[in-house]
Specification:
This protein has 2 helices and 3 strands, in the order βαβαβ. The chain starts with 6 loop residues before the first strand and ends with a strand. By secondary structure, it is α/β, with parallel strands linked by helices. The chain has one domain.
Amino acid sequence: MEEDKKVLLFKDDTGKLGDTFPVAGGVYKDFVEHQVIASSLPKSGIVGTGIGLATRGFRSVLEI
């Protein structure tokens, strides 16, 4: 993620206070400004957004 700014991470249950399920480690505090989206979308919305971004050249990582 540091080398490729087109990599985006969508995470459920995350925020400034920490992760409910810390699968992706501490990426929220390291990349929150640009590349980590704290998603409140339903699961199908997260997948649809990831697919849409992929069609525009982004590389979406979806943590559901």
